[in-house]
Amino acid sequence: MNAEQILKEMTLEEKAAFCSGRDFWHTKAVERLNVPSVMMCDGPHGLRKQEGEGDHLGINKSIETVCYPTAAALASSFDRDVMRRLGEALGQECRAENVAMLLGPGLNIKRSPLCGRNFEYFSEDPYLAGEMGAAYVQALQSKGIAACAKHFACNNQETRRMSGSSNLDERTLHEIYLPAFEAVVKKGRTRSLMCAYNAVNGEFCAENKMLLTDILREKWGFDGFVVTDWGAVKDRAKGVSSGLDLEMPGGPNATGEELLEALKKGELAEADLDKAVLNLLRFVETAVRQRDENAVIDRDACRRLARQLAGECAVLMKNENLLPLKEGQKVAFIGEFADKPRYQGAGSSHINVPHPVSALEAAGDAVIYVRGCDVHSDRTDEKLLKEAVKTAKDAEIAVIFAGLPDAFESEGADRDHMHLPDNQNELIKAVAAVNPNTVVVLHGGSPVELPWLSQVSAVLCMYLGGEQAGAAAVDLLYGRVNPSGHLAETWPVRLQDNPSYLNFPGEDGVVTYAEGIFVGYRYYDKKELAVNFPFGHGLSYTSFAFSNLIVDKEKLTDQETVTVSVDVTNTGKIAGKAVIQLYVHDVKSTVRRPLRELRDFAKTELQPGETKTLFFTLDKRSFAYYEPKVHDFFVESGEFIIEVGESCRDIRRSVSIHVEGTTPLSFTIDANTTIGQLMKHPRGAAFIRQMMGRSDGPSGSEQAEAMGEGSEKIMQQMMFDMPLGSLVSYGRMTGRQLKDLIVSLNA
Ligand code: BGC
């Protein structure tokens, strides 16, 4: 099939109808022109292929298959290779199932721990989310299956998700909420993007020209197609003229009537409709070309992969010389999640798993088990609690499997607090009180408050680790796998510490991102707040040392790159994987900036005593912030510190470099421009210097001398904050002269 040729042969009616889906999961066929219908399915951590009745909420059945770790867990691997292995496996499965596109990855930033869908998202950090997403997209698409990055953009909560507006400033949008999408477009070359239900600053994403055309296509060069989130269309014609291509789910009544009507009225240009049709035809054309009738999938191999990945993703948060467990120790597994693990979230990503593996099943006879409490309730069952305490007392080690039950987090609803159910907290406290060797294994898609943290010896977080989470937990507890996950989000002490606390989930359908760029560790670090576990934190059964942090140049312009290298040594007694995080800190900036920002990372396996040298390349974006005055990323000249460490609060080595920005920050001067601002303008500075030179009043330093020590700074500040217009009031120039000056400086 040839997309361009088919477009020429399509009637207007065919084109208009083609831009809506046939049903829940298929595009429409154009039989007359041999354009087939192709299928898309939900992911992102498994294949949710529905052969019977379709739905987008996880209600009806889908095929039995493998559930991999969810995005919250995956990002904690800090490993692009984990994403590659997952993407390839999913791609192969889609091939075997004749599915042309998988609806993922989910890239939205974790603004608040309360977002019900956080388990489907990677991180609070845009760089990490973008890198993980791009690796997944590349791998999936290498198998001929289109990825569909979602939900574009600012869909960071479930409350009023289909009708609300996320309101934020330009810098925050570009610095925090867009870069992950930019990465999957530019680096991942995603063939599709799903626009979000919500509005951004009052304009719905499905008809947001700024997002769908100006940024996505014109700034980033996206050449794929945009599909709506299911049922996100408001104004069809406005959507198509703004850059929307496919409406889903559509159905038999979606004939494109509104588009034809708009064409007739001149509200939609035929050229815009053609663009949408061509984008879609190209998708179908590629899908047909890459179809492989003979592809097969080995689901047993996929299950083994799911277990390996879950082991790479889990985070050992705390360990006071207790783990790994030793064979032969008397271990009690306590808590229902040991028997029935919580390993995925509810909603459109829900995978139909025939047999999830529990920790109890994986551990077999090595452990004894008691239920401890009812995970579907908040209330303590005294009988179960008593039994748990007695069992814990008799055991050498008590391992409690705890976490958020299904009813606490799901697509479609946000949490309203950050607690575990009360009965679980009570169980943990009671067990820890009788057994000093208490381990907590946590399940859930998002951070929870940990009121018993100081009373337990170890905490292992599995997140929602996929169908093999139970087996992987046992691998990790017994040291058959050395933990290597690191947190992709901060675990605050309490919800009130979270930067979005006062503005989540908003009021009356409007949520204001008042915290701006200070999301996650960018906020906690700047405020120097104590947290339970910082971004990037993760322990291992071995230890790593960092040395020889070297830059290949100490001075560069923002048009050049700098190569950073660092040696990492395994200083422990067993093999393990180190995660090296590279942060950049701008020493002095005229705008507010976070203390440090993640700019690269790597994961590497090291044998005991082994050293490896790792290399990183930093470019303009590594040093830049988004400057609304130039509507672009901008580097302010000065000193930057490059830091490497094992978390944002465990920096091991740092080195300083000087970066020279090459973009002039032009701005318009008016009577309200201050002397200080003018000093940054080449001709403005010359004028000020000249004016100061012919000053006939007492000089700043004479006055300062009269005021006493330290006051020179105050005098200078006062002077710098004076607006240009005030020079007229102070008789330094006439109004006419001021006007001429402004015209000449702006020329
Ligand atoms: C979700 C999407 C999902 C779609 C199809 C929507 O409700 O927001 O993430 O891909 O349904 O199931």
Task: Give the helix/strand layout.
Blueprint: H1 3-9, H2 12-18, E1 40-42, H3 71-76, H4 80-96, E2 101-103, H5 126-142, E3 146-152, E4 165-167, H6 170-177, H7 179-186, E5 192-195, E6 199-200, E7 203-204, H8 209-219, E8 225-228, H9 236-242, H10 257-265, H11 270-290, H12 299-313, E9 315-319, E10 331-334, H13 359-363, E11 367-370, H14 382-394, E12 397-403, H15 422-434, E13 438-443, E14 458-461, H16 469-477, E15 491-492, E16 510-512, H17 521-526, E17 531-533, E18 544-551, E19 555-557, E20 562-570, E21 576-586, E22 597-606, E23 611-618, H18 620-623, E24 625-627, E25 632-634, E26 638-647, E27 650-660, H19 675-678, H20 682-693, H21 700-707, H22 711-720, H23 726-729, H24 735-746
Parallel strand pairs: 1-2, 2-3, 3-5, 4-6, 4-16, 5-8, 10-11, 10-12, 12-13, 13-14, 19-27
Antiparallel strand pairs: 6-7, 9-14, 15-17, 18-20, 20-23, 21-22, 21-26, 24-25, 26-27
Helix pairs in contact: 1-11, 4-5, 4-12, 5-7, 12-16, 14-15, 21-22
Beta-D-glucopyranose binds next to loops.
